[in-house]
Structures are given as structure tokens and as C-alpha cells.
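Input:
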Amino acid sequence: MSVSMPGSQTNPESGVVGSGGATAPLLAADGRPLKVSLRRAMFKNKARALLLVSPLLIFLFVAFVMPIFSMLTRSVESNEVITLLPNTAMAVQAWDGEGLPDELTFAALAGDLKQGQIDRNLGRVASRLNYEYSGMRSTITGTARRITNLENPESWKETLIDINSNWADTGVWRVIKRESSGYTLSYYLAAMDMRYDEEGKIVRQPETRRVYVDLMIKTLWMSILITFMCFILGYPVAFLLASLPLSTSNLLMMMVLLPFWTSLLVRTTSWIAILQSQGVLNNILVAIGVVDDNNRLQLIYNQIGTIVAMTHILLPFMILPLYSVMKSISPSYMRAARSMGATGYTAFRRVYFPQTLPGIGAGAILVFILAIGYYITPALVGGESGRFITNFIAYHMQVSLNWGLAAAIASILLGAVIMLYLLYNRIVGSDNLKLG
Amino acid sequence: MKKSFRKSALTAAVMLGTLGVVSAAQAQQPLNVVSWGGAYTMSQEEAYSKPWTEKTGQRIVNIDRSATGLAGLRAQVEAGNVTWDLVDMLPADAKIACAEGLIEILDHDELLSPAPDGTPASQDFVPGALDECFVATIVYSNIVAFNTEMFPADKQPSKIADIFDLENYPGMRSLQRRPINNLEWALLADGVPHDEVYEMLTTEAGLERAFAKLDTIKDNTIWWSEGAQPPQLLADKEVAFASAYNGRIFDAQVNENQPFEIIWDGQVFELDGWVVPRGKMDVAKDFLRFSTDTERNAAQASYISYGPARMSAAGLVGQHIPTGIEMTPHMPTYEPNFATALPKDDEFWADYQDELNERFDAWLAN
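Output:
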């Protein structure tokens, strides 16, 4: 923009528009209209900027947007029946949901099962239906095995029911009909401890099978507690770091950073060594006579274990943002407050503390979001009561292979975190966050 | 002209020959074998992998992923990039993988070598060892073990019911964090006959009875999830009893001289063996044949106390190679150990594990 412009036309847009169509457009040095020339220059800049950030954008898209999208899809997708039992899915639509479907539907099922046995892909639909109705796995695979060599019997209905009495159960057929639309709510229902009853109405799970809601609440509650503990422990440390002379504070900083650089597993296992009932802490307590030898404290494999180990592991994420904020607070404010008669406590409360709020905000949100997604530490030291909902996501991903349910729980967790963040944003304000 | 033609033909021939050598060398890529890790993988290494590498020069890469083997197989097949060549798996998982088409169907008589006396493979394995896509190598057992130092010498536990008896056998227990085995033991300890256990577990009343029995020790139980945990917990005296795979306890007994004792009463035994991931038949079949022959099968029992799945190998079980002790009494299939054994019902668990896992988790949480 080497064009010289009169002062009133610093803003090229308004300059050109303001001059109207009557006067000739302003020309740049090369004789083109200034507007065109500027737009070209701006476009080049924008394109260059976009090009520079494009690796990041592509990375974000591939590593962040796409997985989340595929997770959300998986949590409602239920295409097993429609793709693997296509004729049955079609035929069962004509059924009104009372009694049993007609012979045609049974014949369609037999055909689909035979085809599935040849293609060897019945396992997926068997697993899918078994989530909804225990026993469907063996019903489907067993029936398919037994009808492979059967050619058009008198009545498929009788034959199938004869092979497995589950086929005479109206509930089974209702499940098949419900799951033949390609989409399902049942993963979300399961994640919220609900289910379809025999009539297809949504009801709560029986008490003996309610798992996830309580666990979700417990996970949130424990993450908040861990965040709070990190704040209580981290604040004085950050204060010391920011106020001690450089030589001492450097040493202190090393003590904060060394565990931070140590492997997560090492830190977790060292907590096991310290906290277990034959561990260091209990041995000391027994030696000094606080605890009886036969009555050692259970400090690990429960909530205490999870809270202690995770507070320790996440502490640097609280200390570091707090430190960087405190470092930037001039000590003269405190001195000014004291000189005007405030007690040490009042000066801290009304002058110093409010200035550290952005650091607390940043540290709290970092620790909280990391805590809520942790699953290795709770799995190792949490025992039964110290488990997180994330352990169930991992379990359904790796062991039970119910990826739909894992996706549904993860989506709910994601939703909860976003809601909390919005709430937090409303109260604290995201511009009031300072990471350093 | 003619000479130079001959020369170039010769060069071409040499080059072709070299190419042949190169492709033969490429065929000798290492074999990726997935198994359970720990003492078990070590026994496979000694019994199968080392002799195999000696014989053929092909290296075996051990991958300890069997605990999540089905998930791994499914992910690899879905992604169209199968890197595992042979996977050690439980028969229940193999059934599911087979129905989903993740693994190859096996023609047992063609693939596996016959017994030394000529009995075809299909008749040389214990019942249930050969499934459509599965060939068992071992019989292992889920047992409860205890640390003998935790109880007075005249009052050592001996029955499965003893783990539910807090009065006579106090202390913490450690059980695997899953309903499998625990529900069976609860009913056995409650006096249900062996052949009625699984039938009873399909009824609400039976489940309530099993959970009620587990309720009696719930507050005294630490739940484990990795096979290495129970021997550790027993050694640390964190618990008095722990359920475990019998081979792990054997390993701690003989290799680490731990004062552990196995309660063989009510052992729940099952099989474990190989499956071939889809499309890997050509790569894996030679090693599969080698590792399942009678000699190799018996050799594995010299390193770990799992019974060979081949009947012709049972008679060849000898001594534990590292320590020289007699292996037979440590085998789950040894007559006195086997008297009250319960075979795990794979069909039952395939059907009910989704529901019962949830119920078990809910029970744990409340």
C-alpha cells in the first residue's frame, strides 16, 4: 500500500463509495483503480495467511472434527439389521407388532440367515441384537447353522420356532422391527440407564442394572474435588514461586517440574508403593503407633487413591498458569494497600487475590477437563469406588466391543463438559482466562 | 554380436536368480504372534518360537494384546490393514470373531499334524478343543489360591466355599472384576450341584442367589483386572485369597518360592488356543502346524502348568525345565485336581455377558 492518500480517504472503502460515481475512481500508482488494487493485495495476504494455517486446519479437521463426528454418528447408528438381514427388515415392516409375524417374514429371515452363514457376517447382527435381548447371539448363530442345508420346508415359521423357541417370542420380533430403521436411540438410553420394555416404551432400567448415571455424577463430583484440591495445594506453591528470590524459586520450580516430566505410570505406581496397606505410609503410621497393625488404613484402590494420585499428577497444570499470572502482579499494589491501612489479610483478599483470578480460572479449567477424561490412573489406583465413567468408555471400546454404547457415553460426557464450560464462561468469562 | 547377446542373457539370468533369492528373503518376514504376555508368552516362546526360529530362521515377534484381541482384530479388519499373523484367543472370543468373519475357517485334519501314532488331528484333541475357526493348545483353569502364611497351619482352606466363610477364614479377597467365574463359584459355594449351575444362572432367582452370596464378601474384596495382579496381591499379603489363572500361581510358587496354595475344588476350566486372522492363512499355516504338533504341545507343559490340549501329548508331560519338578500334579487336568472341576459354558456367556456385565457393574457400584 504504497499509495499516498488524502487524509479523509484513509479508509479506502468509504473513500471510494463516498466520492460517488460522478468523480473518476482513485488510481493506484500502476494505473489500476485503487479499490481493485487493494482488494488484490488483501486477497494475497489472506490467501497467504490461510495457506500458513492450513496445516493446522487440516490437522484439526482430521484429528478433531472428524473423530468427534464419527463418534456422534456411531452413537445413533444401527445398520446391522438393515444391512445383514435386509429381507427380514423389509418384511417385518408389514407386521403390526402383535402376536407373531407371518410366514413370509419367517421365510425372509431364513433366507437372510442362510445368506449370512455363507457370507460369514451374522456375528455383527447377532451381537447387536444381543445388546437388546440376551440370548439373541446364540439364537441367530445357532439357527443359521442348523438351517444351512434345509430346503424350503412346509412352514419356515414352525421350523424356526422348533429350532429355537425365542422365535416365538413377540419381544424378539419387536426388537428386530425397532432396529431395522438404521438408527437407534438405544445406546443413549443405555447410557442413561434406560431401556425399551417389552411393549417398546422407554422405561428406567431395573435397579440391578443402573450403572452410568450415578457414575457420571460421581465422575463430575470427583473431578471438581480434584480441581479444588489442586487449587488449595497449588496456590501457595505458585505464590512462593512468584515471590521468592530467583535462586530459591528456581529450585522450587524444579521440584514442581521434575514430577511433571516423569512418566504418568511411574508416578501412579509410586503412589501404590506409598499408600498400599503394607506400604510406606501405613508402615510409618504403625511404627509410631497411630494405627494398629491389624487395622491398617485402606488408602488405595478406592476414592482416596484416585483423588490423591490424580491431584498430584494434575497439580502442575494448576501451578504453572497461577505462577505466570502472579509473576506479572507488581508487588507495589500490595505495598500501596498496606500503606493505606489495609491489614495483610484484607490487602491479600481485596487487592492480590482478585488479580490472580484469571490464573485460577485457567488452572481450574485445565485441571478439570484433564481430570474428567483421565482413565489410566483411576483404573490403576481407583479400585471399585474410585472408578471414572471414562473407564467404562475404555471398557466398552476394548473389551465388550459395544462401540455404540461407548460413543453414546462419550458424547454425553462431551456434552456435559461443553455445558459446564459455557456455564463457566457465563460466570467467569473466557476473556478472563490467562494461561501465561 | 552373438557373444554380447549371450553375455547379456547370462547377466539377465543372474539378475533373475538374484531376484528369486531376494523374494525368498522377503518371504522370511517375521511372524507377528499375539498372545497374553507374562509367563504364558514365555512358555510359548520356549516351546514354539525358539525351535521354530532355529528350524526355519524366521523370527517371531510377540505382541501382548490377547486381552483385547477381539477388539484389535475387529479394528484391523475394519481398517483393512491386518498386521497380526496369528492370535492366541479364548474359544468364546473365537466364536464371535468367527461369526463376524474376522478369522479363517480351519480344516483341522489338513492343517494340523496327526498324532505320532497316526491318529488324525480331529480325533486327537480334548472335547471342544477344535472349533470352526479355532484350535486349542492348552487347557487352563481359573482357580482360587491363598497365601498359606495368612492362616494357621491347622486351619488352611481347602474348599471353594471357604472363600465365602469370613468367620473361619478372615482377610481380604481378590476376585477378577467380571461376573464370569464369580457367579459360578457363588452358586457352587451355596451348594448348587455342578450340572445345574448354568441353568440356574439363566433364571432371576438363580442370579439373585449368586449375587446374594457375593454380597457376603463384597466389603472384603479387591477386584483385579490384570492377570499379574493376583500373585502380587497375595505376595504383598494385601489379600488372603485371590482368584487367578492357575499358571500364574504355579509360576509364583516355583519360580519365586511364594507360599501359595491352590484350591482345586470348583476350578472353572477352559481352553485357549490359536486363530488365524482373515487373509493370513498362507503366512501362518506352517507355524500353526508346527506349534500344535504333539511334541511342541507337550513341551509347553514343561514351562507352565497348563494342560496340553492334545491327548497324545498328555502322556509326554514331564518335568518343569527350569526347576526340574514333576509337572503332572500341577496340571488342572490331573485326576485329584479335576474331580470337582466345572467346564466354563461359552455359549451361556456369549449370550448373557452383555446383560450380566451390566448387572455386575451395577452391583459393584451400589
